[in-house]
Amino acid sequence: MNPERDNITLIGSGLTGPLLAISLVQRGFTVQLYERRPDMRSVRISAGRSINLALSARGIHALREAGLWSEIAEILIPMRGRMMHSVGGELTFMPYGKDETEYINSVSRAELNIALMNAAEKAGATIHFNERCTGLDLRSGAVRLRNEDTGAASVVHSNVVIGTDGATSTVRTEMLKLQRFNFSQQYLDYGYKELTIPAGPDGRHVFETHALHIWPRGTFMLIALPNIDGTFGCILFLPFEGSDISFEALDTEAKVLSFFESQFADALQLMPNPVESYFQNPTGAMVTVKCSPWHVHDKALLLGDAAHAIVPFFGQGMNCAFEDCTIFLELLGRYGTEWPALFSAFENSRKADTDAIADLAIENFVEMRDRVADPRFLFRKRVELELEKKYPGRFVPKYAMVTFHRTPYSVAAQRGAVQDDMLGELCDSVQRLEDIDWAKAEALVQQKLTPLPGV
Questions:
Q1: CATH number of the domain that 158 lies in?
Q2: Number of structural domains in the chain
Q3: Percent of the chain predicted with pLDDT > 90
Q4: 346, 301 in Cβ contact below 8 A?
Q5: Same-domain status, 220 and 327
Q6: pTM of the full predicted structure?
C-alpha cells in the first residue's frame, strides 16, 4: 500500500465523512471533504435540524479506534433506560440493559459533528464548505462542484471518491444511471417535528436526566433526549395524513394546543411557546434506502447512509455508519489500495447486516410507539433480563446484541426471532416471574441457542 500516492475525496462532511477522514489521514492518505452546507461552527443551525442521537457500542468502538473517545465522552449523557409517561403523568422506568454498565448515550448531532470536523482538520484533512456536488464521472472519478455562495463551478480529480453524503446521496444518484444498479427507498407514512424542553431555573434537567423519555400513545409518540446544557431535545412522531391525529389534521393553533393538553400535559407545561415551535419547525421525513452495488470499479464507493439509510427507531443509524468505517479500515489493512477488491469485500461483509438493521429499526418503531406501555410487554422484558442473567453469553436479548455488543446485525435479527418465540412459549400463559417454568426455559435455551461469540 502506498497511500501517499492516493488522494481520496469524500462527499459530505456530516458525521461519517469526518470520522473516516481522520483514520484515512492517519494512514497516510491525502483527504479532501466537500460539503454543500456552510460551516456550522460559524453559521447557526436552523431550528428543527439538530435531532439528538444515541451513541452505543459500535459507534464507541469506532471512536476509540480513531483516538477520539475521551474527547467525545465529554459531550455525552448516559441514558440507562426508557422512562414512559402515561397520559395521566404516571412514570414507568424500563432499564435498557442487565445492569448499570449497559446504557446508551445521548449526544447532540451538531455538537458531535463539530467535534468530528475539528478533529478531522487537526489530523490534516481539508474540508471545503458551501460546495455542492452536482455530478460525478464514474470512469475518471472527476467530481463536479458548484459553490453555493458564488455559483462558481469547478472539477476535482482524485484517485477515489467515497460518498458519505447521506440518504439523498448525489454519488448514489450518479450510480442510478448505471445498468443493473438496484435501488429501493421506502418512506414511512410518519413524519417528525423537533421541539425543546428548556433547562430548569437552576440549569438542570426538569425530568430524570439519565433516561430516554417516551410518551407512547399507540399511533403516535413523543420522545425526549437530554442535552448537556440541561435541555431536552424532543421529537414528535405523527402520521403525515389522517382525519384524526396527524400533521395534516393538526393545522390550527387551537388544535395543536388541545392535542398537547390531552396527550402530553406534563411536557406541555415545561415547553415555552410549543404551538409557535410546532408551526415554525419543519416536518421531517424518514426513509429506508437499500441499494447495490455500493461501488463502481476502483473509483467510487458508497458508505453510511448513502448506501443504507435507516429510520431512527433503534438508535443505530449513526452507529451503523460508524461501524462501516471500522469494517472499511480493517479491510483496507488487508487489501491495501487494491480498490476493486477492497470495495467488493466491504459490500459483501456489510450488506446482509445493514439490510437486517434497516428491518429491525422499523420493527422497533412499532415497539416504541405501541408496546412499551403494555404490561404484557414489560413482563416479557423482565423475563428476558432474567434469562440473560441465568444464561450469560447464550441468551442475550436482541436489544443488547444490537446496542451493547458488536454482534453482526443479521445474527442479532436471527437469534432475536428465535428468542422472541421462546419468550412467547414461556410467558403467554403466566403473569408472574415466579410462575415461569424455568425447567422448560433451560431446555429451550440448550436446544435452540448456542454460545454467542464475542459476548
A1: 3.50.50.60
A2: 3
A3: 90
A4: yes
A5: no
A6: 0.95
